[in-house]
Task: inverse folding
């Protein structure tokens, strides 16, 4: 069984990549999602937006 690196309520940096551009933004982990075949998933929420998004473990890093 794999363990989640980030806890619910923890602030993380989400790295989004599109084409040759990437950027990071702070999000809060709101729930642990089911794992797909390769890695764990998280439901994350931005402080500036009113919707959740799904992020894979490799897209997240510690905010500290």
Result:
């Amino acid at each position: 069984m794999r363990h989640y690196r980030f806890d619910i309520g923890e602030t993380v940096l989400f790295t989004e990549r599109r084409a040759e551009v990437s950027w990071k933004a702070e999000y809060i982990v709101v729930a642990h999602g089911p794992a797909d075949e390769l890695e764990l998933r998280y439901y994350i929420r931005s402080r500036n937006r009113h919707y959740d998004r799904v992020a894979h473990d490799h897209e997240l890093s510690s905010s500290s």
In short: The chain has a mean pLDDT of 89. The longest strand covers residues 21-33. Strands lie at 11-18, 21-33, 41-46, 52-56, 60-62. The chain has no helices and five strands.
